[in-house]
Amino acid sequence: MAIQPIRLFGDPILRKPALEVVDFDKELRRLVEDLTDTMLDAPGAGLAAPQIGVGVRAFTWYVDGEVGHLINPRLDLSEELQDGPEGCLSIPDLTFDCKRALSVVARGFNMYGDPVVVEGSELLARAIQHETDHLDGVLFIDRLDTDARKAAMKAIREAAWFGLEQPAVKVSPHPTFGRAL
């Protein structure tokens, strides 16, 4: 078990697009394991690699008792929308209603490089969209309407964790991924 520190709002890595994974090796499998352990310990419904300081396109999820992961995701979103509460491990203890597609078909790879397709609706669709946004440097608060985003930013500035020093990890704990971007 390798629980990693979760990067908080304000850490620059959360705003940078992650790099495509090209090596499906032992280091990637260790990253997926670390993401899973960290997500379950937090606990959360999902966790993307940039949230633990690794700038690659990988995430995990835990929804309805199912743990999964996806590498290099590509999403097809339904036109039908859902509106509901959303939070983020990088913005702890704050939840705001956020519009998302009701269902998603996600294509990508597992940690061994095998192609996978994940279809989900409601909470699973929300989690997959949320984590894929992290890989693009987008936070869920960016998707809120103007008034809700102002309220979210006010709540973030007032949060006890805001402005705390970020984890001192300057280099990815996964050597083949190089430095955190």
Would you mind describing this structure in some detail?
It is a single chain. The protein is of the alpha+beta class and 181 residues long. It has one domain: Peptide deformylase (Peptide Deformylase). The protein is 24% helix and 30% strand. The protein has three helices and seven strands. The strands form two sheets. Strands 1-2-3-6-7 form a five-stranded antiparallel β-sheet, sandwiched between helices. It starts with 25 loop residues before the first helix and ends in a 23-residue tail after the last helix.
Describe the structure in brief:
This protein has 181 residues and is α+β, with helices and mostly antiparallel strands. It is built from three helices and seven strands, in the order αβββββββαα.
